[in-house]
Amino acid sequence: MMREGEELSTKSLLSMTVRLSIPTVIARLSFIVMEYFDAAMVGRLGGNATASIGLVASSTWLFGGLCSAVCMGFSVQAAQAIGAKDNKGARLLMKHGFLFGILFALVLSCAGAAVHSALPVWLKGDGAILKDASAYFLIFSLFLPFQMFNETAVGMLQSSGNMKVPGILASLMCVFNIFYNYAFIYKFSLGVAGAALGTALAEITVALPMAYFLFVKSPELHLRKGECFSFNRANIKRAVKISLPVGFEQAVMCSAYIMSTRIIAPLGAVAVAAHSLSVTAESICYMPGYGIGTASTTMIGQSIGAKRYDLTRRLSVIPVLSGMAIMGVTGALMYAFAPLMMSFLTPVEEIKNLGVQVLRIEVFAEPMYAASIVALGVFRGMGDTLAPSLMNLFSMWAVRIPLSALLASRLGLKGAWIAMALELCFRGMIFIIRLYKKTVKENAYESETQNET
Predict the structure, then answer these.
(1) What is the per-residue pLDDT for 5?
(2) Are 385 and 76 in contact (CB under 8 A)?
(3) Pairwise CA distance, residues 209 & 211, whole Å
(4) Residue 55 · residue 278 · CB < 8 Å
């Protein structure tokens, strides 16, 4: 309807947001369930095992975020090409995305393997967890190209509006991951390394069906005979323009997470374990925000390609308000069920109690966190990545890190999470202000797009 120029009511736009978001939310939920079972299985091995994964978690986020940035440079363009009914151009973008994505992942994989021994030491980890942390990060790094393949395939399917297949396959990957983890952690007695191997093998298992649905079954993107691969400098240049700010943002954000880990690590293994498990527990709360944000990127991208600037402005506001409302509800539920969630993740009473305390601090920031997540998806669908990246940079390094250093020294882990909650509220506020100026007050986006065209 969007591509054909049909009139869409606010009710229709809300319905479209919901229909596109639900499969993505299910996919996100599957990943989170997978993380829950990972954490719970490792948690049964003791606090040190949990802390060893928590120590390098921010570094794995960094590598994963950089891969996402490269993928986004091509998937956003593919969504816009499909919106403009240029399916052949979208397929060329898909080929570019896989080529550059896999090459980039191989470089990161080599870099991770090179630093895996030194990384836990640099992060000031306790001597008892260094070996496991190093092994976990090494295995993660070696299998990074498979993660990149799946991420690129998911991004391309979503750019065409196909949210169901990635959601179903993500759910299957969760099932496979639980099975493989149980086998490697307990049956083969590989402990923390087994958790990394289980996740890697689950990613490999879903790679083949993911490729089938993209390369064979996708109406817009399936490979055609006679379509030769050729380098398109304009596509690559624009991908770099989109990806570089996102990659820079991911590097800055994750370096801030790494710095937060360095602030928390001296508080002891209990604090590190509680922090790691609480981050995992909280992820189910902001899962709807990321699902709606991903759907927003697709909707905005296709509305731009179809030159439906009237819809672009409306689609910028509806998902943000929906995300804030939903994450407000999930935040309230997390406050109520925090003890149950932490009990599932760890049998260690001290870790569980500390985790409950910090989770209940964070819930008050969830609506504003939703605003920043969904607004970021909106901006990315527009191809606008530089300013949001700079905003994230400022929020993390000018607000969170100084506050964390100050409050953690006085209040321990609770102080670090108070700083996190205050920073998320600040971040949500500045994203709302920019969204208002860009889409409601100034209507700047339409003129920017016309100038680019």
Answers:
(1) 62
(2) no
(3) 5
(4) no
pTM of the entire predicted model: 0.72
d(Cα 28, Cα 384) in Å, to the nearest integer? 24
Asked if residue 26 lies in contact with residue 165, where contact means CB atoms within 8 angstroms, the answer is no
Do 106 and 280 meet the contact criterion of CB atoms below 8 Å apart? no
For the beta carbon of residue 42, count every other beta carbon within 10 angstroms.
28
Of 303, 278, 312, nearest to 438 by C-alpha is 312
Distance set, CA 85 to CA 220, 302, 412 (Å): 9, 9, 55
With beta carbons less than 8 A apart as the criterion, state whether 270 and 414 touch: no
3-class state of residue 12 by DSSP: helix
Structure confidence by residue, pLDDT tens digits, 377-423: 888 888 787 888 889 889 999 999 999 999 998 899 999 999 999 99
446 class by beta-carbon count within 10 Å (0-12 exposed, 13-18 middle, 19+ buried): middle
Residues of the chain with pLDDT under 50: 442, 444-445, 447-449, 453
Q: What are phi and psi of 46, to 5 degrees?
A: 120, 165
Q: In whole angstroms, how far apart are CA 418 and each of 164, 399, 400, 413, 430?
A: 37, 12, 9, 9, 19
Segment holding 176, helix H or strand E: helix 164-182
Q: Which amino acid is at 267?
A: L
The tokens describing 181, both together, are 């983890």
CA 382 to chain centre: 18
Name the token pair of 340.
């149950």
